[in-house]
Amino acid sequence: MRIPLVEIAGVPRERGRQYGEQAREQIERSIAWYSEQFTATASLSWDAILQNARRWEPLVEAYLPDALAEMQGIADGSGFRYEEILALNGRGELSAGNPFFEEANEACSSYSILPEAAGDGHAYCGQNWDWRSTILDTVVMLHIEQPGLPTIVMQVEAGQVGRQGANSAGIGLNANGLGARFGKTLGMPQPYIRRKILDSSDMNQALEAVFESQQSLCTNLLLSHRDGFAIDLETTPGRHGWGYPTNGVLVHTNHFRYFVPKQIEDTYRYVSPDSLYRAERIERVLARTVEAKSGEAMRALIREALSDHFGYPDSVCNHPNEHDPWWDQNETVASSIVDLTTGEYRIAHGNPCENEYELLPWNLYNAALVRPASALPA
Fold first, then answer.
1. Which helix (H) or strand (E) holds 345?
2. Gap between the Cα atoms of 151 and 360, Å rounded
3. Is pLDDT above 60 for 131?
4. For the chain, how many structural domains are there in total?
5. The pLDDT of residue 58 is above 80
6. What is the Cα–Cα distance from 246 to 290, expressed in whole angstroms?
7. For residue 360, what is the DSSP state?
8. Distance between CA atoms of 168 and 363, rounded to whole angstroms?
9. Using CA atoms, how far apart are residues 1 and 330, in angstroms rounded to an integer?
10. Same-domain pairing of 30 and 167
């Protein structure tokens, strides 16, 4: 496959060591990039970041303690400092500004399709993950087997312990930035929240993972379940808002669709104006999925939606805009189509207009701790 595959298993520190060994080259590239990029976006030197990185530890220890051991293992296996791995897992907060002393722009497009809206009767989810062009070669696919928890298939920047993906309990997670920040400057970085969602064995646990966290960024989280449920959460350091599918389809991009937080309602403006048309463009195509009577036809329509070039280069299929500064040159670094019914996970590494969706060798439900829906009693 074009995208690197990383398989890890065992207790937290051991699976972290396996991760670090297998993704050493990608982690090195990621550290090299962010040590330069953070200086531009957060006005922090890499040394200052490393000196402060352990300030996240008490938050993570109280929320997701296994992540600390896993990151220590990543450091062991890769040969990089533990503080550097902490910094990679705080990259969203660091890219938005200086979280230690005191507008993120993660222009992704997420979707969920329930069985009643799919011509083949399956549940689908996925997204175009748009981020800095330079990190394209740091993206890896993780397969995580962990004692007592669901198995996870997840796309991450190398060194991170959480991002977007799906698990053997039939839960899919997709995410996109909301470009606003207020409240506490030092909160829970998103990779830990997303990992705890994917560690969940049911939707109640997944939602608890969101509502019990204290974050510093506004981020959208789209949760899907193979049994035909989806909810979109616009999360903030204050209250959260939420929405449900319309006619079995749920799409979100990078603006508040359900409410505007009172802390910013007098000054709120869209960081990514293209978000206003990207959502509508995807919805227009996905409204036709009920006509797609096979998995192949479904994937073709989803690819059509995610390859849309209206507003190019600031389109659903995102390409670098030469007018953006060097540290904010974005493009679609990965695009996913996850069939939550069958457990098939497909990924295009880079723009879906140019790259095929490859079927990962891991089915979500193979040797799963939780049986697939078809095996459950009626």
1. strand 344-349
2. 14
3. yes
4. 2
5. yes
6. 13
7. P
8. 9
9. 23
10. no
